[in-house]
Amino acid sequence: MTVLGITGGIATGKSTVLAMFAARGARVVSADAIARALTEPGAPLTAAVADAFPTVAHAAPDGAVTIDRRALADRIFAADDARRTLESILHPAIIQRLREEIDKHRQATEAGVLALEIPLLFEAGLEEMVDTILVVACSEAVQIERIRARLGIDEPAARRMLAAQWPLARKVDSADTVVWTDHGLPETERQVAGVWESLV
Fold it and tell me: Where are the domains positioned within the chain?
């Protein structure tokens, strides 16, 4: 089995590309989905996140703690120390789950593709975890436009979010292959089809 690591910058189209690989028969796992599951009300790490960021946590009458994800995102993109604190809480558990998924799929079959969407693959030093690294990229102008449309924020706030991650150009330079998402879904599909053919 080939383990494909899909990464890139915020709002470059990683989840869209992941879905295109799933449609072609890849087994897919999202680090973001793992992070959400780990911080659902009553989940293992919710209390730890709430303790570290009490202003973004809300307790229901039954005592269940909920994390305001938008408020948490605002905190971590505004301050490097806050981002590092959150990463220290979440990353070990996320990485453990990713390794478990890889082990499970390698034991189940020797064929096929396991696609892992890992936004911070480079930042977390997880290159050795995957066989091939695909970076999903777009122009900075398109990326900022997408961030603003998705989150309803101004351009300076969008640029602060970009600054919190590796520059996209650095990720592109470190990739085994790149899919560009600037020119619509049909063109993205064409590129994904080419990558898929090379993998299988």
Answer: 2-195
